[in-house]
Amino acid sequence: MLRTVKVIVVMLVVLALAVAGCGGQQAKDTKDSKQTSAQTGGGQQPTGKQKILVASDTAYAPFEFQDPNTGKYVGFDMELIQAIAEVNNWDYEIRSMNFDGIVPALQSASVDLAISAMTITDKRKEQVNFSLPYYQSGQCVAVKASNNTIKGFDDLAGKKIGVQIATTGADEARKIPGAKITDYNTINEAFMALKNGNVDAVVNDYPVTFYFIQQGNKDVKIVGDLRTSEFYGIAVPKSKPDILEKVNSALKTLKENGKYAEIYKKWFGKEPPEFLPGEPPAK
């Protein structure tokens, strides 16, 4: 009898260990599944909504930046992607990264799209697909307010110029004869270098530079005319044409129902150009 009881006890212990092992493995599998879904994006959520991973350089006010009080990402681009997600019934997650890392992330499809004040260029179109244009911009020159010698692009030859890495501002600055270019990871670093006297000027997108000055940085000014006319687009991996189609369809919807104009006026204080979002009129 005693032997029989011992055998039963041993069998119960073995059975308990087996069940625990299966439960632990199931928990691990569930955890791994969640991690994979978060990493690859495009997954289906318990809500039935598609999960979209969105890359953005979240240090580029007023398009994308972190609210110091709430810690949330805010800005024109952030409200636009929220509106696009609502139209498409998407859940979305912002993946903050340096601007020069966005195109590689799109090429590897580790994100589903990127909204980051990204100018549509022929070079970038070889690497990713772009949505309809949703903003018109241009490059400007910023100098210290006390600087009266630099009055525009024509005065930058041989000067020290700060730019954000991998931007069209950096491309434009490198066309200037004899200019000494310093690339910074964020535009705020370039602005700080200007204020500290490490560079003579900063070449950057006009709305971002204007917004920076309006935030109390009156020791900086914009000089001269805009050098370029550029259009921002939402970038999508070439392997995700379905995402691109839904983005463009949503942009058209937001234009028709007035939501795009509402967001634009909130951040820029004026009506958007009539053709946006959309292709510019032929010259």
Automatic annotation (TrEMBL):
GO terms for cellular component: cell envelope; membrane. Residues 1-27 form the signal peptide. Residues 51-271 form the Solute-binding protein family 3/N-terminal domain. Gene3D superfamilies: Periplasmic binding protein-like II. Keywords: Signal. The keyword Signal applies. InterPro entries: Iontro_rcpt_C, SBP_3_CS, Solute-binding_3/MltF_N. The keyword Signal applies. Belongs to the bacterial solute-binding protein 3 family. This is Amino acid ABC transporter substrate-binding protein, PAAT family. It comes from Desulfofundulus thermosubterraneus DSM 16057.
